[in-house]
Amino acid sequence: MHMLLTILGGVLLLGVFMLFGHLWGANAPSVALAAKAFIPAWLAMAIANLLVGVHHAGYTVREELPILGIVFVAPAALAALAIWHFSKA
């Protein structure tokens, strides 16, 4: 359940990034730029989630790495799709 909530949080954060991109630039390239900025920020958050799982929940890094992959890739794939879509416009 925590993993699903974390992924949902990433999708919502992507929406916030894209909203600010639209508000600041009011054109498609600025929304694409905001989605590009989301990816490293989300990677940092996903790694922080891994560290919390290792240090506080008692999991090993080996147990947490697949979770990191899933948690990072799902919102990052949506960001890549948004980058592709808004770069065409």
Explained architecture:
90% of the residues lie in helices and 0% in strands. The longest helix has 28 residues, at 28-55. It contains three helices and no strands. Helix 1 (2-25) runs antiparallel to helix 2, helix 1 packs parallel to helix 3 and helix 2 (28-55) runs antiparallel to helix 3 (61-88).
Keywords:
elongated, mainly alpha, 89 residues, 3 helices
Summed up, the helix count is: 3
The Cα radius of gyration reads 14 Å
Q: What separation lies between the terminal Cα atoms?
A: 37 Å
Shape by Cα distribution: elongated
User: What series of H and E elements makes up the topology?
Assistant: HHH
Question: Strands, helices and their partners?
Answer:
Layout: H1 2-25, H2 28-55, H3 61-88
Q: What does this entry show, briefly?
A:
The chain has 89 residues and is an all-alpha fold. It is 90% helix and 0% strand.
